[in-house]
Amino acid sequence: MYKIQILIVYFVCLSVVSFSQEQDSVLLSRASAAFDLASVDSDSAYLIAKDVLRQSEEKDFSRGIANAFNALGWVFMHKGKMDSSLVFFQEAKKIFENTTSDFDVARVNINLTEVLTKQSRFAEALDYALEAELQANKIGDLPLQTDTKRLLGILYRELGDMEKSISYFNQAIAGFEKSGDIRRSVNTAISLSILLRKMNLPDSSLTVLEKCLTLAQNQPNNDYQLAMIREHLGDSHYQKGDFNASLVDYLEAFQLFEKLGNMADVAYEAMVVGKTQVALGKYEDADRYLSMAYKVSDSLGFTNYQYDASVELASLYQKTGQWEKATKQLGMSLQLKDSLANQMQLQKMAELKEKFESEKQEQEIALLKANIDLESSKSRRRMQLQYFVVAVFLLAIILAYLIFNRYQLSQKLKEQELRNQISSDLHDDLGSTLSSIDINSRIALLKIDDGTLVASQLQKIQENSKTILDSLSHIVWSINPSNDSVQKVISKMKDFASEVFESQGILYRFKSDEEDLESKINPLIRKNIYLIFKEAVNNCGKYSFAENVEIEVGFKNQWFHLSIIDDGKGFDIFESGEKGNGLRNMRLRAEQIQGDLTINSQVGQGTSIHFKVHIP
Fold first, then answer.
1. DSSP 279-321
2. Which range of residues forms the domain containing residue 373?
3. Could you tell me which residues come within 8 angstroms of residue 563 by beta carbon, excluding any fewer than 6 positions away?
4. Are 588 and 609 members of one domain?
5. Same domain, 465 and 572
6. Residue 578 burial (10 A CB sphere; 0-12, 13-18, 19+)
7. Predicted confidence (pLDDT) per residue in 176-209, tens digit
8. Do 460 and 525 lie in a common domain?
9. Model pTM greater than 0.70?
10. Which residues are bridge partners to 600 per DSSP?
11. Using CA atoms, how far apart are residues 407 and 508, in angstroms rounded to an integer?
């Protein structure tokens, strides 16, 4: 009887343990399901993960808690809340480390790498990726090893170590193929092809992509990946200068995306098809596709694609001599880029400067003169009426008139100075570039049978056209009164620094004082401040080989302060001062606005630039 009781107790305990283990297994399965669901339905995934977390905490089930944290981190990453994502992943990692589960720790390290990469925090991401690689190699898990190598390929590409990036991409591709994961193998190979194009190796890129095409064609329901491969084949052929082959691939991609109903991709493919047709001289087809790209992008609210299509249309109309359309598209592109309320007024000013608009110039000048005369006439009538009605205050009115007249004169002088500055900028920035475009186009026409030479000249024309667009954009920004606050100047500086440094993987910190940000800066000083900053940042990005840059900007007690400090290779100031136009231009601009510019640098010890100017 006693033995029977013991057996009953044993089987009851075994049943309880089995039931508990089954519950734990269900919780882990639900956490995995939430993780997988995050990319498709992040809200539902969040609810599942929170419920798993609640039940795991009630049971004090540490693995369940850690997996719930891991799923929540993935959910918040897909919601775009990267900081929250990092917090959950870090909590998951702490628990997994206590359970000594190398597999789970490696998995969380991979997830942390993904989030930090999306934040462009590549150096931190690399630490986690290397740790994940060690753990994956330790346990010999092929999927983990392969995923880690894919991430390391991306990170080394972003950090500029192309040799390591290629090696890791190739290892990842081989790993995915060994695992039978053809889809991810092809996606990784596409990343490798992009890297090869960045290294100006289009033939190598084509070799990789042609292998991708062969593999992808054998996969069912794979139209999207096939379209992406065709798009990148087109990019590689275009870089190589084989525009006919490029057009074939772009059209294939266009048709596949159209079939899938992916309108964002349709808009992009229409744009690159149009650009390639321009290169082939198929201007009517190019117009049709570029116009389609513009309209679809507009309907989707994709301003970046809309802007690119507008720029390409403006270039096309310039090539075909459709000046009115070209001018209109140029205006649209500037409006999209800078969101300027007075874009139409600027376009009229630009038209007055263009040689081919000489007839319009005379009409516009006559119209402006008539408006000025009309305003002067109205002003005189108002003054006469005031003299008759307010005779008692004649002396005060005369005094007010003199002050007002003096103010008007001051404003007119400022306006004239601004017009002269705009005229000078247009002449200096655009005159020589337009002359270069004219020369390049004449050479291309004379050597029309020499395809290589024509392509070279078209490339130069494209580069010069981009230079003109950048110059016009800056002139527009500098004269727009809505940009005359300190805050707007600092915001534009921050955007430019981000554009230069993030594209090159340079870590930078941009610090700005929060005082007097609404104070106004006149256009001349504002322009020169920004150009000094732009020259300094460009020089740092191109020549310093810096890893870290500190930027501080502030405005206090009517003084504007700027400092840029990098840890780059530095240079000999005296030698560079004699030879470099950049440093000389910075000093000339500082002198023009009576600013104080100090540049300190030594070879191997980085560079520091300090600038201050009084703002009246």
1. HTT-HHHHHHHHHHHHHHHHHHT-HHHHHHHHHHHHHHHHHTT
2. 340-481
3. 550, 551, 552, 608, 609, 610, 611
4. yes
5. no
6. exposed
7. 888 888 888 888 888 889 889 988 999 999 999 9
8. no
9. no
10. 608
11. 44
